[in-house]
Specification:
Layout: H1 10-19, H2 21-26, H3 31-36, H4 42-47, H5 50-68, H6 72-75, E1 88-91, H7 107-122, E2 126-131, E3 139-142, E4 148-151, E5 163-164, E6 166-167, E7 175-176, E8 178-182, E9 188-198, E10 201-207, H8 215-218, H9 229-254, E11 261-265, H10 272-282, H11 287-296, E12 298-301, E13 312-314, H12 315-330, H13 334-340, E14 352-354, H14 355-361, E15 365-368, H15 371-380, E16 396-397, H16 404-407, H17 410-413, H18 418-422, H19 426-454, E17 474-479, H20 495-502, E18 509-514, H21 522-536, E19 544-547, H22 552-561, E20 564-567, H23 579-585, E21 589-593, H24 596-601, E22 607-610, H25 619-643, H26 652-665, H27 671-714, E23 719-727, E24 735-743, E25 752-761, E26 767-774, E27 776-777, E28 786-793, E29 798-808, E30 830-836
Parallel strand pairs: 1-2, 1-11, 2-10, 11-12, 12-15, 15-16, 17-18, 17-20, 18-19, 20-21, 21-22
Antiparallel strand pairs: 3-4, 5-9, 6-7, 8-9, 9-10, 13-14, 23-24, 24-28, 25-26, 25-29, 27-28, 29-30
Helix pairs in contact: 7-27, 9-10, 10-11, 11-27, 19-22, 22-23
């Protein structure tokens, strides 16, 4: 049980369920809870049950093979094995592995859990790092008037599927490992380390409830996303700095390979970069040299498309804590550490320390979590790379995925993978979908009854719940966190029209809703109350329900049982949104605004896109327009297709859309694809960069740091002195000869790249969709100034413009914009007046 692979392995789940089916159901699929409440003597019965013992041996043998045999990462399919990192440390503030280990609040944690599970399945040597929250996130219930209330039940780590990391070298049982972080005011925060085994992947969870800490510091790991700024800062210092120290201890004790790559999943763990710099400084490097080595092997993933979603601490508070680190002998320059999180760009606040900004400055590779989110992130953080076109901002994207073995219902997975499921007989596919919907209806009624009882209703008042939802009716799901931009209540924009859809005599719909608002988000709580009050009304309460306490267990039921998954965020504020991916793998269809992953993979036939009013500035009017578009879509497209059944009761058009969805989305939305992308495009290059800088006693790191310092000092004197261009009359295919004279301020031609930036021009003479042509250095030209030349082909129709620029060049830079330095002429270099035909 201590290896959580059981939570996504059908054989193990079936084995546990067979022990006590009623107890398994009552525990919500928690083997620890089930076994603790099992009647005396049952274990003795099982010990004599040869059939059970045989099945148990089969499951154990499968686990041994799974954890020891080579997998994809070791096969060579991931790339040359000697180029892959020996290990990757993956840091996240939350993890959704299983409902049995409640250490998550929403999508970020679920994504992190799926990342670890797929890494395990693929054999990727990841070490997860997080915090162990004694009270988790919170348990949500509703008051009589529909207001969200929160409880924080305490979890005893000894009752969870965890083992305490011990220093077995000290004595037979080993003393528990301790890691410490210096805090402001001369305090020291100490934590013990619990290990959750996620298949092949160890997940290290730091716990501050140790006797070495003063009472107030016990509470550092009290709850997820709780407390004020100082509390959160302490959590993030422990996660980042303490997490690296925990990794070092774990590797030393277990012999696990040391990580060559560190992956920061959102900015909460960004302080890991400072700890790694401290380690390198301690080994003899300067701060700048250590920064280069650390950056080379670090990957930073941003998950938020809105500034409000980023941790920003008062600069004075961070300064106090950093001063403590310096005073403790870390040897790190305070001004340079503070500069890492400074918002030194237009519109930035000089009084805050920005964790995302620090994360990007400490990582050579940065990515968003969908193609659209990558674009939004480049626009959002463009100020860090002034002078560069948005498309050049070095933030890429790897679109999230979901762990299919976790989220695909057994009924669907028995058909095979998504391609096999798509090929199943239409009648069988439809019967499975009906069975999953019926199962969800049963679970919804049970949870709804429990919720009403918590709200004070008596059993005699709740007989109507027996008729809530209908197993034959088109069922729509909406479940997610409840910040304002996700627009929980958009469907309530016209209550009369929504009521008409719910109660339509021929083609009714029914809606199941769930979601938590952050405890401090009064606006989100009001949205929930508004939804609950509508769902409470006697006229519609059998067709629309709000289920409190959205967690992984409820999510499993909803993503499998809903026919349609609704997602209507304010575009483009959804970074990715993976719940709809889970629905797609179960044969449900998406009705969504084209945001996050749906913008990328909607093909016009694998679901429906809600039209958006992107150009409408008035938010009230925009909501009205998009809500009306949603109603039209449900009424005129979705419901008619669902209810258009043949004589055998199978809606052929609907089933064909499910088939196409499974074929088109099945290979794309899986976390195996996502983790493979991270390995090939980020982890392997990061490992190679780190090795290159560390070779020969960090010779390349020392040279690169010295080169960057020389470039930065010289750059104010770099300027373009003269630009000449001549060629034939402008026409498609004509060649423009460009010659540039530049003063390099003491740099050499090998230190820079001189480029022509060219392309069509817009109304304000700006170059749109630019292309870049690198000019060659003219070594034969005498004189103190450098000269460059090259030919530019006029390859696009329309007005054509160009300019030139100088930027630093070095083989160890990951992108041309890495230093954020670029020089343009004082005036535009040129533009043709003709229209290229």
């Amino acid at each position: 049980m201590l290896n959580l692979r059981w939570s996504w392995h059908p054989g193990a789940v079936e084995l546990f369920e067979s022990i006590d089916p009623a107890g398994w159901a009552a525990s919500g699929g928690d083997p620890f809870a089930m076994l603790s409440s099992m009647r005396p003597g049952r274990l003795a019965d099982l010990a004599g049950d040869e059939d059970f013992l045989r099945r148990m041996d089969t499951v154990l043998a499968d686990l041994r093979e799974y954890t020891t045999e080579p997998r994809w990462y070791q096969s060579g399919d991931a790339g040359a094995t000697d180029s892959l990192p020996s290990a990757i440390a993956y840091f996240s503030p939350e993890y959704g592995i299983t409902a049995v280990l409640p250490q998550y609040s929403g999508g970020l944690g679920i994504l992190a859990g799926d990342h670890l599970k797929s890494a395990s399945d693929l054999g990727v040597p990841v070490i997860g790092v997080g915090l162990l929250y004694r009270h988790g996130y919170f348990t949500q219930s509703l008051s009589a008037d529909g207001w969200q209330t929160e409880r924080y039940p305490a979890d005893d780590p000894n009752g969870l599927p965890l083992t305490l990391l011990r220093n077995v070298a000290q004595e037979e049982d080993g003393e528990p490992v301790r890691v410490s972080v210096d805090l402001a005011g001369g305090k020291r925060l100490t934590a013990q380390v619990w290990v959750a085994q996620v298949g092949r992947v160890p997940l290290l969870l730091l716990d501050s409830y140790v006797e070495e800490n003063e009472l107030a510091l016990h509470e550092v790991t009290d709850r997820l996303y709780g407390g004020g700024s100082e509390h959160r800062l302490r959590q993030e210092l422990l996660l980042g700095i303490g997490g690296v120290r925990a990794v070092r201890a774990f590797c030393a004790i277990t012999g696990h390979p040391e990580p060559e790559v560190f992956h920061t999943n959102e900015g909460h763990a960004g302080f890991l970069g400072l700890e790694r710099i401290r380690e390198y400084v301690e080994s003899g490097l300067t701060f700048e040299e250590a920064l280069e080595v650390g950056r080379a092997g670090t990957v930073f993933t941003t998950h938020t498309p809105v500034p409000a979603g980023i941790d920003r601490f008062p600069r004075e508070l961070v300064e106090r804590y950093f001063t403590a680190a310096v005073a403790a002998g870390a040897g790190l320059p305070l001004d340079r550490m503070l500069a890492l999180g400074a918002e030194t760009y237009p519109g930035g606040d000089p009084h805050v320390f920005n964790m995302a900004v620090m994360g990007m400055r400490l990582a050579q590779r940065v990515n968003g979590v969908s193609v659209l989110h990558g674009q939004v992130s480049r626009e959002m953080f463009a100020g860090l790379w002034p002078g560069f076109d948005t498309s050049e901002v070095p933030i890429g994207s790897i679109t999230n995925g979901v762990h299919a073995p976790t989220w695909v219902a057994r009924d669907i997975s028995e058909l095979g993978d998504a391609t096999a499921a798509a090929a199943a007989d239409g009648s069988r596919l439809w019967q499975i979908r009906r069975r999953l919907r019926a199962r969800m209806v049963t679970q919804t009624r049970r949870r709804l009854r429990e919720s009403w009882q918590q709200r004070g209703a008596s059993g005699a008042e709740l007989t109507w719940i027996d008729d809530v939802l209908d197993e034959q009716v088109l069922t729509i799901g909406f479940a997610r966190r409840v910040p304002s931009y996700k627009r929980l209540t958009l469907m309530l924009n016209d209550p009369k029209r929504l009521t008409g859809l719910l109660l339509d005599p021929d083609r009714p719909i029914q809606i199941v809703i769930a979601g938590k608002a952050h405890p401090a988000d009064e606006g989100g709580k009001r949205l929930i109350q508004q939804m609950v009050r509508f769902a409470d009304s006697e006229a519609v309460r059998r067709r629309i329900v709000f289920l409190p306490d959205y967690d992984m267990a409820l999510a499993h039921t909803l993503v499998a049982g809903c026919d349609v998954w609704l997602n209507n965020p304010l575009r483009p504020l959804e970074a990715c949104g993976t719940s709809g991916m889970k629905v797609a793998l179960n044969g449900g269809l998406n009705v969504s605004v084209r945001d996050g992953w749906w913008d990328e993979w909607f093909d016009g036939a694998n679901g429906w896109a809600i039209p958006t009013a992107d150009g409408v500035a008035d938010p009230v009017r925009r909501d009205e327009l998009e809500a009306s578009a949603l109603y039209d879509l449900l009424e005129k497209s979705v419901a008619p297709l669902f209810y258009d059944a043949s004589a055998d009761g199978v809606p052929g058009g609907w089933v064909e859309m499910i088939r196409h969805e499974l074929r088109s989305l099945g290979p794309l939305v899986q976390a195996d694809r996502m983790v493979g992308d991270y390995v090939r495009h980020l982890y392997a290059p990061a490992a190679e960069s780190g090795r290159a800088l560390a070779a020969d006693s960090f010779a390349a790191a020392r040279e690169l740091a010295a080169w960057k310092e020389r470039v930065r000092e010289a750059w104010p004197a770099v300027r373009i002195e003269h630009v000449e261009a001549d060629g034939a009359e402008p026409s498609l295919g004509a060649v423009l000869d460009v010659r540039v004279t530049a003063a390099l301020g003491g740099l050499t031609a090998s230190d820079v790249s001189v480029e022509v930036v060219c392309g069509r021009t817009g109304e304000d003479d700006e170059i749109t969709e630019p292309t870049y042509v690198t000019l060659a250095a003219d070594d034969s030209a005498p004189g103190p100034q450098a000269r460059f030349w090259g030919a530019v082909e006029l390859g696009q129709p329309g007005l054509f413009g160009y300019t030139v620029r100088v930027l630093p060049k070095h083989p160890l830079l990951a992108s041309r914009a890495e230093l954020g330095l670029v020089t343009y002429p004082d005036a535009p270099a040129g533009m043709t007046n003709g229209d290229l035909r």
